[in-house]
Amino acid sequence: MLIELANHNDDIRRLLEKGYALRVDGPHLVVRDIPYLDSQQALQSGAIVTKLVFIDKVRVKQDDHQVYFAGSAPYGLNGQPVPNLAGGPITIALSKTDVVVQRSFSNKPKDGFPNFFDKIEHYVRVISGPAIERYKATPLTFRVDTEVAAGSVFKFHDTLTSLAEIGDLAALFKDEVIAIIGLGGTGCYVLDYMVKTPVKEIRGFDGDAYHVHNAFRSPGRLDEADLGNGKAEVYQPRYDNFRHGLMLHQKYIDRTSVADLAGVTFAFVCVDKGSARAEIFDLLTSLRIPFIDVGMGLNRKQGALSGTIRATYYSAENAANVRNLKLAEMVDDPDDIYRRNVQISELNALNAAVAVILYKQLIDFYVNDNKLYHLLMGIENLHTFGMVDP
């Protein structure tokens, strides 16, 4: 109900997108996580409740300028109750027992409230102002009620999708099961981007350990306790609080890993060993799983690094033909300069971004005029070269 109301009432949408922890409870809008000071100047958390008058099934308007409050009386920095909050003790029936209304407030500005957004913002300033000033508290927690999040892969409301009104395009990902094979320099950035994409499921695979040099080419924080642990073991908790359907495995993928890829609809191959790539290609091709392979080729030129980043698409129907073009290394190169200069995070991130954009073009999230299946970008000039119709 909340999302439906937000889609048809601009003031509700603005509250949700700003970060208020909203809930619809019958004919009431509940705004949780409202910080305030109690009589001892301690930080407390309450909730503002206001009536919803339904114009029709999806449009609402205000009842009056008053609100209800779940919490004790809020106090100011001077140790006195916040002034000009008329009203008094009251109880109302709500279906959720975690919010218990104790009082009503009435603080009407001269011109009233034109909408719910202005009304809630006004009362938050009055009630929460002292707590915000003293404790740097915030009512903008983006906390999503479990009923609101039902059916979503995200554990937070996807405000960017609703703000941009691209929900129909986001729905293109709802049945996608993505495998990311290799969570090294480029693979970990692919993981970061895909975690924030509403695909149904993400499976990541890497048997290597996470060392200091990995921290220099991966997104997010460095926790010293992570060093020496498996990459999958490091990245799983890093993203667990963001979404559902994330399963990272501390293992390598080879031609025997059929069961690991059961149900996968698309794969990213992010490995730097040619021999490993060859086995993975064999497996994906035999399972008719389309995939994108990424890679870099760097060299010294006039004392500086030069070279290319690459993303190559292998469709389920044409993977063997593309492979025969020998666009990716299938043997190990012990003299590869990239393996000696691993801390190049911007190139890893760029390589991953190109691969993810190519994937999203393939499912029609982005416009795909050229139908590229192989893309090279030169580091020295950022020019791109693409191949079509393999």
What does this structure look like?
- By secondary structure, the chain is α/β, with parallel strands linked by helices.
- It folds into 2 domains: about 1-150, no CATH class; about 160-390, Rossmann fold (3-Layer(aba) Sandwich), CATH 3.40.50.720.
- It has 13 helices and 15 strands.
- The strands form 3 sheets. It has an 8-stranded mixed sheet, with helices on both faces.
- Strand 14 (about 370-380) and strand 15 (about 385-390) form a beta hairpin.
- Helix 2 (about 10-20) packs parallel to helix 3.
- It is elongated.
Global mean pLDDT: 89
Number of helices: 13
What best-fitting shape do the alpha-carbon axes yield? elongated
Strand order of the largest sheet: 10-9-8-11-12-13-14-15
- List unreliable stretches of 5+ residues: none
Tell how many strands the DSSP assignment holds: 15
Query: CATH homologous superfamily name of the largest domain?
Result: NAD(P)-binding Rossmann-like Domain
End-to-end C-alpha gap: 48 Å
Structural class: alpha/beta
Strand content: 15-25%
Number of domain modules: 2
CATH arch. level architecture of the largest domain? 3-Layer(aba) Sandwich
| DSSP helix fraction | 25-40%
SSE succession:
HHEEEEEEEHHHHEHEHHEEHEEHHHEE
Major sheet attributes: 8 strands, mixed
- Multimer state: single chain
Task: Indicate the CATH class of the largest domain.
Answer: Alpha Beta
CATH topology of the largest domain: Rossmann fold
